[in-house]
TrEMBL record:
Name assigned to this protein: Phosphoglycerate mutase
GO cellular component, one term: cytoplasm
Coiled-coil residues: none
One Gene Ontology molecular-function label: phosphatase activity
InterPro entries in the cross-refs: His_Pase_superF_clade-1, His_PPase_superfam, PGM_Phosphatase
Domain of life: Bacteria
Length: 208
């Protein structure tokens, strides 16, 4: 009986150690952040306010985010070229205890509209479609350009991306292997919201 128990324990422990030993190694961490509140997010933009700038609440949201991330060791801080994304990044960056490099990239801008409304997008997604408007982009198109840009930084250990609702949702959806047309519905972040993604040595993404 005693030998049987020892054998079972040995088999269980071997299985556990074997699983972790054989599991693919995490080689990169990515944090995706939706920009904080800007004036353009309000129902009515105040007179003389710059639509793409953060509101007073947006600045507080960015500071709160910075406080949460203050001890994260982040190597690369990327934002889209929109002012609201850059401001969110800069406020959060100023509170971080480890520094890092700051860059901006058009690769993390929202989808090119091609003259179509957001309502047109969401209606098509509800119907299980991800169309590409004339002179615009589908969500799949935008995802590909983001992933292509990130491939340039595959040796960077930790990256944080300050982007927009559609881009954040699709990158999270990529990690969760969510169907393209369901990504925004399932993974949309609130303003100044964030999510963490791990990239394995085999290139697979997942959310921890």
């Amino acid at each position: 009986m005693r030998n049987t128990i020892i054998f079972v324990l040995f088999a269980v422990l071997t299985g556990i150690f074997g699983y972790f030993y054989s599991s693919p190694k995490v080689v990169q961490k990515i944090i995706v952040v939706r920009h904080a509140e800007a004036y353009k997010n309000l129902a009515k933009i105040p007179e003389n306010a710059e639509a793409d700038s953060l509101t007073t609440l947006g600045e507080k949201q960015a500071k709160a985010l910075g406080k949460i991330l203050e001890n994260e060791r982040i190597d690369l801080w990327i934002s889209s070229t929109k002012k609201r994304a850059m401001q969110t990044r800069d406020i959060a960056f100023a509170q971080n205890n480890h520094g890092g490099e700051k860059v901006t990239s058009q690769a993390f801008l929202s989808m090119k509209k091609g003259g179509k409304s957001w309502q047109w997008r969401t209606q098509n997604w509800k119907e299980g479609k991800d169309p590409r408007p004339t002179e615009g982009e589908s969500l799949s198109d935008a995802t590909k350009r983001c992933l292509q840009k990130l491939s340039e930084y595959k040796t960077t250990k930790t990256i944080i991306i300050f982007s927009h609702g559609d881009i954040c949702a699709t990158l999270i959806g990529h990690a969760k292997q969510t169907t393209m047309y369901q990504r925004y519905e399932k993974h949309a972040l609130p303003l100044a919201g964030y999510a963490k993604i791990h990239v394995l040595i085999n290139g697979q993404w997942y959310t921890p």
